[in-house]
Amino acid sequence: MCGIVGYIGPRDAYAVLINGLKRLEYRGYDSAGIALVNSKTRIYKCRGKVSDLEKYITGNDVSGNIGMGHTRWATHGEPNDINAHPHKSFHGKFVLIHNGIIENYARLKETLSETGIKFQSETDSEVLVNLIEHIYEQGNTSAEIAVRLALSKVIGAYGLVIACIDEPDKLIAARKGSPLVIGVGNNEYFLASDATPIIEYTKSVIYLNDDDVAIISKEGLVLKTLKNDPQTPRIHQLDLGIGEIDKGGYKHFMLKEIFEQPRSILDTFRGRVGADFNELHLGGLYNVIDRLVKARRIIIIGCGTSWHAGLVGEYLFEDLARISVEVEYASEFRYRHPIIEPDDVVIAISQSGETADTLAAVKLAKECGALVLGICNVVGSSIPRETDAGVYTHAGPEIGVASTKAFTAQVTVLAMMAILIGRKNNTLTDVQYRSYIKSLTEVPGKIEQILAQDDKYKNIASLYKLANNFLYLGRGYLFPVALEGALKLKEISYIHAEGYPAAEMKHGPIALIDHKMPVVVLATKDSSYEKIISNIQEVKARNGIVIAVVNEGETTIKNMADHVLEIPVTDNIFSPLLAVIPLQLVSYHIAVMRGCNVDQPRNLAKSVTVE
Ligand code: M6R
């Protein structure tokens, strides 16, 4: 995915655009560019990060009040200066920034090439800007009509901003499949892939829908569909403060987000937990609760960390509500002709609410008649708008590419849902219901205690920062945490790591164990505690290094393991919320010690809005 930003109004556009790109850089960071639009349109773009672009631009003319900017995550064409956006059309009439993929670009490129158009870049986006120019010139028409006609010929996804030099007081924006938000100020408009670049200027925003086209000038905004049907813009008020999108004194967003978890989970509870723990209110499910309680089966879909949260959800729904659950990678689910019945409930989990595979899986499940719910963090994003109902996690913006507080917020929502359904379908007694609610509300305080031991995690990191491999083992509720721990480590430190159900170790991974292999064993007290002790012994017998996450006061494992990391005791069903914190911090410190770019790991982007 890429980040796009646009501005039109009385301000110095360059300042708005460059600040906006810094806010959006988490979406892609292999190249960046800016265009200042007027009768003498200037485009500056280069490979590298936004800071490289800033250096590159220094000393150049950046005057003007209208412009657009882009930070790229490469899909078509390697990251280089030429493939960077904005892209200009062959005859120089149009300038465009684009987030998404034009799937039929090869065929369009061939047809356009036959008319004599020469392409500079390898990108699909340059094909689109040329298609628009071609239609504009052939049809002798307006920029807006050319954009609408061109987009109706395009297969794929786009969030885009385009300017035409013949109409230099205007920006045209359009969306299909890739997010686009318009900020509405006083005689000024801001465009961005999400609200973070907009929040410091205005809280009034319009979320574009698929097939919307916005024609924006200083005088006003006209919203219509691709087919030219007028739309009434709905203005939403953002509930987001500027402090929430800054690093707040931390060295990295990831560290800030790890330390925010006690507060972000409290925000997930806010307004949902009755004062004396006798009630849970999930307003977003109010209209669908009967269908949910009667569900024959729950199918949970997601990708990456959200999929791991879904695995925890499987244990929760099966234990607390006795509903059968399947957890699927959205990317597999959507392509394997799944059997979905009308009395199934599909729950899509996504921090960003924009992950392409999850969004497509949601659409498929809806077509099959299932009730489709969302558990998302970004308010107003595509998945919550596509689903029948859902619950926002309200964890606040997550900027670090490695997901941390989103995971704990997702698990918190899943726990609340499972407790609520379990009570409604009488799987849980009232006493159990209240006891679980109370125990869940104690989690933030317990996370504070874990965070206070950060020096221990730093110490483990310093001992094993040079390891080439890590193994993570867990059973039951802690198996998904083992997967999540391994994902955190590999994505930010580039150390190969694997998560396994502890009992599976004997079926293969045990062959990897030697004196150089750190094995993180999640070994809190539960019904399989004795078995995990056996697993630890098996690792030690092969000279592996055991780093065990145990409950406070534990002594048996302390005598066996090389290191123990203690976490407070909680109900087993909430143990993922605590056990994941040391793993997040150990990964973070290892990545920092290895000199990795923690917030922007190589090859990754915050959300994957392409297949
Ligand atoms: O925004 P989503 O939750 O849908 O994103 C899903 C994954 O792309 C995401 O969790 C990814 O795996 C993270 N880099 C994990 O830290």
Please, could you describe this protein's structure?
- The chain has 611 residues and is an alpha/beta fold.
- The protein has 3 domains: 3-243, Glutamine Phosphoribosylpyrophosphate, subunit 1, domain 1 (4-Layer Sandwich), CATH 3.60.20; 250-448, Glucose-6-phosphate isomerase like protein, domain 1 (Rossmann fold, 3-Layer(aba) Sandwich); 453-611, Glucose-6-phosphate isomerase like protein, domain 1 (Rossmann fold, 3-Layer(aba) Sandwich).
- Helices cover 35% and strands 22% of the residues.
- The protein contains 19 helices and 24 strands.
- The strands form 4 sheets. Strands 3-2-4-1-10-9-11-14 form an 8-stranded antiparallel β-sheet, with helices on one face. The protein has a 6-stranded antiparallel β-sheet with strand order 5-6-7-8-12-13, covered by helices on one side. The protein has a 5-stranded parallel β-sheet with strand order 16-15-17-18-19, with helices on both faces.
- α3 crosses α4 (124-139).
- The longest helix has 20 residues, at 405-424.
- The chain is globular and about 80 Å long.
- The N and C termini lie close together (10 Å).
- The model has no long low-confidence stretch (mean pLDDT 94).
- Bound molecules: 5-amino-5-deoxy-1-O-phosphono-D-mannitol.
- 5-amino-5-deoxy-1-O-phosphono-D-mannitol binds at residues 303-306, 350-352, 355, 358, 401-403, 487, 491, 604, 607-608.
